[in-house]
């Protein structure tokens, strides 16, 4: 066991930098922390390196991680690479998913949603609702941001989460006869007017501005969720959840 | 115009204390900030005092707030009574809603949900879905917590938000023949098996533990949202949104 004790160690510096989007984009890697996410990453086969604290090391399931490159860090190094207040002593460096083609029947397209909790929650819900991919357009938070990873609770490892040009995605979906539904408060129909079908793509948009007008012009139809009370709108992650479950049918 | 300039002013001390649950419970008052919430509070008729900064004061719509007690504070006092990083210069002290009887047809019961963002978002969704009240049981965050108020975006002023004993609520709802649905992962049926009716109450529970076992034993039926993918569960506010919209019908 080689113990890393210095904050100036090159590995530590590299891991710490992965908390920034710039470094994640440059390397195609990301950092997850906590048992749940690390175990999910292991099951998905995307781990490059395991990092554990001295304190955690005896608990590491050697059968599971026997073939992995394991680094042990001094307990006081942990806070440097953690994004949480109470880290659990286990981390993994993982490979980001590659760009993907249109495979499957249900897609969530996210246009410029910036809150990491909302994006993570939508990824988790898309997984639960049996979606085949989540595509993040320009202006959305990085899906490998630590807070997005935490909110998604491992769903990153269950379905492709990719960045893409939403204009191109819409065109390609339509070429494959997959209907594309935007969400909008104006020039839209109630979700109850949609004929539920076996495949579709749903676009949700920025918390304040909604989906970009240019994208809305390209969709097959734009939908709203009826408001029966006095609130003006719904939280974007809640709206996405209601629509994903409604449109997929039973 | 009487300008309050000292942090030691008795009014300032009182307002500041309203950021704590203890003081809110003791006084039956709460503090809201920002134009949107203050204007909603005004429309609901629950304002006791208006507070504006010197800088905001010229912008205050005198026609709307002419009969209110308005306090003007020096700009540097603002941060003492604000819960946000970029306060907007306008605050209101409001009366909390009184306990309420069962009036209406749709109710959301919240059992021990502690995250203020989740509770606020559920209040907002209950409003949108046309619910008649939200009842918070023991162990839930205070609905007048500043973060709950922000996430609910004014829905506190649209429907009764009350604290209550959920055991008693369930009994009274059942006496009125309003079916009560719990949410659970085990000993439960798919939401799609419920016969959609004109009235119901839905109970959602703690992010980790779910709804209390004792409450689940008292319901008419316990429901789960089918998981079509690989995630283990849904965020509680998303689950509540999907169920509220599904169970209310079109």
Automatic annotation (TrEMBL), chains A, B:
InterPro entries: Alpha/beta_knot_MTases, MRM3-like_sub_bind, Ribosomal_eL30-like_sf, rRNA_Methyltransferase, SpoU_MeTrfase, SpoU_subst-bd, tRNA_m1G_MTases_N. Belongs to the class IV-like SAM-binding methyltransferase superfamily. RNA methyltransferase TrmH family. SUPFAM superfamilies: alpha/beta knot, L30e-like. This is RNA methyltransferase. Residues 31-100 form the RNA 2-O ribose methyltransferase substrate binding domain. It holds the Pfam family MRM3-like_sub_bind. The keyword Transferase applies. The lineage of its organism: Bacteria, Bacillati, Bacillota, Bacilli, Bacillales. It comes from Pallidibacillus thermolactis. One of its GO terms (molecular function) is methyltransferase activity. The keyword Methyltransferase applies. GO terms for biological process: methylation. Keywords: Methyltransferase, Transferase.
């Amino acid at each position: 066991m080689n113990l890393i004790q210095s904050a100036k160690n090159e590995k530590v510096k590299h891991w710490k930098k992965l908390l920034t989007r710039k470094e994640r984009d440059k390397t195609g890697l990301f950092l997850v922390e906590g048992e749940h996410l690390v175990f999910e990453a292991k099951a998905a086969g995307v781990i490059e390196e395991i990092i554990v604290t001295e304190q955690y090391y005896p608990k590491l399931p050697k059968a599971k991680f026997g073939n992995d490159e394991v680094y042990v860090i001094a307990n006081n190094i942990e806070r440097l690479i953690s994004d949480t207040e109470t880290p659990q002593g286990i981390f993994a460096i993982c490979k980001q998913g590659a760009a993907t083609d249109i495979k499957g029947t249900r897609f969530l397209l996210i246009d410029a949603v910036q809150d990491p909790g909302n994006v993570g929650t939508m990824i988790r819900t898309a997984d639960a609702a049996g979606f085949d991919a989540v595509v993040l357009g320009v202006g959305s938070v990085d899906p490998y941001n630590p807070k997005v990873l935490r909110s998604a609770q491992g769903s990153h490892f269950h379905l492709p989460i990719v960045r893409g040009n939403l204009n191109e995605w819409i065109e390609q979906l339509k070429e494959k006869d997959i209907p594309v539904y935007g969400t909008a408060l104006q020039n839209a129909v109630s979700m109850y007017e949609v004929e539920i079908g076996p495949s579709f793509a749903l676009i949700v948009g920025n918390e304040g501005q909604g989906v970009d007008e240019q994208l809305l012009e390209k969709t097959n139809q734009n939908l709203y969720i009826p408001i029966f009370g006095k609130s003006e709108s719904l939280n974007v992650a809640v709206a996405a959840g209601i629509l994903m479950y409604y449109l997929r049918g039973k």
